[in-house]
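We modelled each protein-ligand pair independently. The example shown here corresponds to the S-adenosylmethionine entry; the chain sequence is given first, followed by the ligand as SMILES.
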Amino acid sequence: MAWALGVADDPEVHAWLADLPRIKQQPNLVFAAARWHGAPAPGKYAAFRAVLLEREEAVKATIRARATQTNEVGRLAALTPVLGTLDGPLALVEVGASAGLCLFPDRYDYDWPGAGRLTGSGGPTLTATATGPVPVPATHPDVAWRGGVDLNPLDVTDQDATSWLENLVWPEQDERRERLREAVAVARREPPYVVRGDLLERLPDLLREAGRHGTPVVLHSAVIAYLEDDDRERFHDVMTGLVADGACHWVSNEAPRVLPRVTGDFAVGPGRFVLALDGVPVAAAHGHGHALEWRTTGGAGG
Ligand SMILES: C[S@@+](CC[C@H](N)C(=O)[O-])C[C@H]1O[C@@H](n2cnc3c(N)ncnc32)[C@H](O)[C@@H]1O
């Protein structure tokens, strides 16, 4: 917060930022790059500013080369109950997978205080407070195949890539950083198959491959916001067509304005995503998966 307030009143730093490509003038990315190059965080604005000005070339190179693509495994606490309603074995296709950490719903235990628990995976526990008729799965999803696509997949076995992922977690969020480290350890045991490319282009091939192994499920969280409006609409149409043809299920978890035809009149609170199955909202989910509010009317599952 101190850094953001400091930047707001600092014309020299405004000029520093103006030299970056517009799409790279993102606070989260600039702050992350400054931390990457030694700005102590949380810390005083003066120390952050000094890193920007004294290490300008290096910080700008990082900003140009890297992106904010936080991979939040906590979201599995929202996605897994939906996956539990589908007949397996499942073949998961995650679009916008980042490092692919959300491709392992079967490797975690879950605690949904207020609704129930799912244990026995031998993995770390993910927790989301729960309200409404959450369909707590009796068993873990049977995942026969998992694959994904990302514009810039991060390799979980590459220390530099996972250090950058850690660096993207806000400094005061120790619990989140710890969860990320555990998730990387889980994924490293079986590094996920994530291809490089645009999700709209790579989806057909991935679906073909998935269909050889189980019931294909296309899933995504915090991804479609990155698409231009036209592509969001196109993606919606593609997915609706695939679901209508019985080619796959579609599990989406996005901010309410991102897929307006999915959200419809489903009202969610601030900071909540719309969790939907096959284009129908089933729950409101905290953006990082810490809360799950199952829909009581209208959607699938009650
Ligand atoms: C905020 S991250 C979310 C990652 C993961 N889904 C999660 O929930 O933790 C968004 C990811 O979408 C990817 N992405 C954005 N636009 C994309 C596109 N057109 N095709 C493929 N991946 C894309 C980004 O590279 C980034 O890794």
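The pocket of S-adenosylmethionine is lined by residues 69-72, 75, 96-98, 102, 149-152, 198-199, 220-223, 226-227 (CB under 6 Å).
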